[in-house]
Specification:
The protein is α/β, with parallel strands linked by helices. It folds into two domains: about 160 residues, 3-Layer(aba) Sandwich (Rossmann fold), CATH 3.40.50; about 120 residues, 3-Layer(aba) Sandwich (Rossmann fold), CATH 3.40.50. It is about 45% helix and about 20% strand. A ten-stranded mixed sheet has the order 3-2-1-4-5-10-9-6-7-8, sandwiched between helices. The longest helix is centred in the first third of the chain and has 39 residues. The chain is elongated and about 80 Å long.
């Protein structure tokens, strides 16, 4: 059996802040996480170019003189919009810092970057221990049943645990791991066991599929790891489509937070068959931690 090597769990919790209705929950999850892990917190706001630019190509649609005047006016407007967006971001970060500080977090770092969110997070990956993001950002905050435009790209690009927050926060009283015996989730069990983040919280290990000796053996192996770390564990094997069966179990057992692996199949297979990970992020009404 493949030896499980758990990476050293050091670095910062990075929380992505925007002006969506998920921002407060992101702050609360980040504050709760750093308190339990005794980790530093960095609040990050990224100014996307699309948020500050209105320039368009009017070539050929209007006369040359009018075109130059209009383009200059649009350029000036872009500059004003960029300044407003910059100040708005600073205010959001200030408000987020005040919120987490009110919950006892000290020495909070705030960062504002220009560029693409995914590129920025990849750049910061070496110092990242865990990422906290909202399920949807400002642009898609009202698109119920959908995930934010950046969330899937972030999960695919960043090989760090990603905690996807719902709109409201309460300290988890029960967690569940969607366990499939894969290397990712075997490593995930060891990561959960080694981290103080969920210590003391009852954990349900749930497999979807046939109740076989192999499945039971895989569950027993995972239970042993968690039990040795002091976790109270429960196990279940459920039948059906993974996203539906896992959601039903979560609702029946009043689970507060779910942990699962990310995108176990190739990109091509995902395009053809879809992804349990994406389906779970879209459908679940609780916060979700995704492991790579």
């Amino acid at each position: 059996m493949t030896e499980i090597i758990v990476p050293e769990m050091t670095g910062k919790v990075i929380a992505c802040i925007d002006d969506s209705q998920y921002a407060e929950s992101v702050c609360d999850y980040a504050a709760w996480s750093v308190a339990r892990m005794n980790a530093p917190l960095s609040l990050l706001h990224v100014l996307d170019k699309d948020e500050t630019s209105m320039a368009q190509n009017f070539s050929g649609s209007i006369g040359l003189g009018a075109q130059e005047a209009l383009l200059q006016e649009l350029a000036d407007l872009d500059q004003r919009r960029a300044r407003v967006a910059l100040e708005q971001g600073k205010l959001m970060l200030q408000g987020a810092a005040q919120r987490v500080e009110s919950k006892g977090v000290r020495n909070v770092e705030t960062r504002q970057r220009h560029g693409e969110l995914v590129d920025t997070l990849v750049e910061l990956a070496p110092e990242t221990r865990m990422l906290v993001v909202g399920k949807r950002g400002q642009r898609s905050a009202s698109s119920h049943g959908h995930i934010g435009s950046h969330v899937e790209s972030v999960i695919r690009a960043l090989h760090k645990p990603v905690l996807i927050a719902q709109q409201t926060f309460a300290p988890p009283q029960k967690i569940m791991m969607a366990y499939d015996g894969s290397l990712t989730m075997r490593k995930g069990v060891h990561m959960v066991a080694a981290s103080p983040l969920f210590r003391g919280i009852p954990c349900h290990l749930v497999m979807v599929g046939a109740d076989t000796d192999v499945a039971r053996a895989q569950l027993d192996e995972a239970v042993a790891v968690l039990t040795n770390a002091g976790f109270e564990t429960s196990t279940a094997i459920v039948a059906g489509e993974a996203d539906i069966a896992l959601t039903q179990y979560q609702q029946q057992q009043n689970i507060d937070l779910m942990i699962m692996g990310a995108y176990g199949h190739s990109r091509i297979r995902h395009l053809i068959l879809g992804s349990t990970t994406t389906a779970m992020i879209s459908k679940t009404t609780i916060s979700l931690m995704v492991l790579r």
